[in-house]
Every structure is written in C-alpha cells, then in structure tokens.
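Encode chain A's predicted structure.
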Amino acid sequence: MSVHAPEHKRVTTKTILSMKHTGEKIAMLTAYDFLTAKLLDEAGIDIILVGDSVANVFQGLETTVPVTLDEIIYHTKVVRRAVKRAMLVADMPFMSYQVNTEEAVRNCGRVLKESGAEAVKMEGGRRNEVLIRQLVEIGIPVMGHLGLTPQSIYKFGTYEVRAKDSAEAELLKEDARILSEAGVFATVLEKIPSDLAAEVTKSIRSATIGIGAGPGCDGQVLVVNDMLGMNEQFHPRFVRPYANLAKTMREAFQAYIGDVKDNTFPTDAEGY
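Encoded structure for chain A:
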C-alpha cells in the first residue's frame, strides 16, 4: 500500500479550511505520548488530538469526566516535543470551561502557553458561542464537538447514537451553524446519523471531523489505541482495526518471559 506524501509543510487552521474547500479529506488521530505522536507525525497525519479519552485508554477510567486541566497540559507538552508537521489540538476537560467565560479564557490560554497546543477543543453548542467568539478574537483557535459528547455522559445516560429524532437533529444543525459563525475552524461530529452529518457538512463554512458519523464529513478521527487494536473490550461499529497490537504485544511479552525463564536471553552477544 502506497503512502500519500504530505503536501503541506505545516498544518494550520488555514490548511484545514483550505482542505474543506478543495475536498481533500482531513485525517485526525489521538496521541498521548511522545513515541506515538512521532510516528503519527512522520506518517503524515493532519491533526493530532490530545483527547480527554486519555482517561479511558491511558488512565483506565470509565469516563472522561475525571481528567484534569493539568493532566491535559502534561500530555500535550509530551506530544508537542514529537510533532513537527501536524496541527496539535488539546481537549479542554470537564469543568475547565463551563463555569464562566473569564475562567474558561484563562484556562484555554494556559493550555496554549504551557503545552504548545495550537488549538483547543470543547464540547457543546450554543452555550459556548460567547466564549468561542472571545477566544477566536484573542487568537486562540477552537474546534467544536457536537453529537455524542462524552463529558455529558451522566446527562445522556448512554453512549447510543444522538440526534436520531427530528427535534434533536434540528438543534444539532443549529448548534453547528452557531459554532461555525462564532469562528470554530472545525467541529467534531460524534455518533450521529450519516445523512445528518453530511447535511451539516454541506451547510457550514468550518470543517467537520466525523467519528461514527459516516463518510460525508470533511475528515475522520479515531482514538489511536482503538484503531491499532489495543483495546480488546471495545468494538463499536465505527472503529476499523488497522492492526491487532494487543495480540502482537501479548505474544512478544510471552516470548520475552519464556526466554528469560529458559535462560536464552540475554546471550553473551547481548552483554558487555
């Protein structure tokens, strides 16, 4: 399989909006550590997201709610050291931007100043309009997130598909329009009907990044651990496994253990 050589020297908000205009699909994946981010960047990924999904795949937590601002800043700083080309986006964790606009602006500023991220991502629609306008005005790019918003899982009570009924679909379309007009450069559409995602994508200026939202979005995102097949307990329809690293890693660990137990590792050639 041939690798598509990156055409852009450095991916920026301008690049993302240009890709939407030209029809070039946007590829986004998550990363939480230096080595994974380095491999993603070298492979030509467009956007790397340091997501609050770090709670699930790194910290072993059930939801994203407990993730702190300091933890997001820490992981983004680590990823920043590896990234040369991709755009780096950091998730704003639960309760880091919902209290009031002043606190939210300060926290978003901390993320950019202390972590090296080039944009922040936040969940929610019209309630964030004033905040987004202020952030964009002072130079902090924002990525939105609509549909299934994991930080609201206790409100939803389920991870099922959102906006299946016409009323919620209309609210989502209006939220997407509000976010776009407020100045977001992109919005994640998570786990919504494919036809709705395609309609939203065609109706707004900003780019859409789908996850479980069908092929009609401007781009796609997955959690890197999921697409690498590292989580054997998580098999949603929208995750295509591009590897089976859980099996590969387990077999490597078992082989190492066996070699140590059999005293076949290390050999004289592997010593000093």
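The first helix runs from residue 13 to 22.
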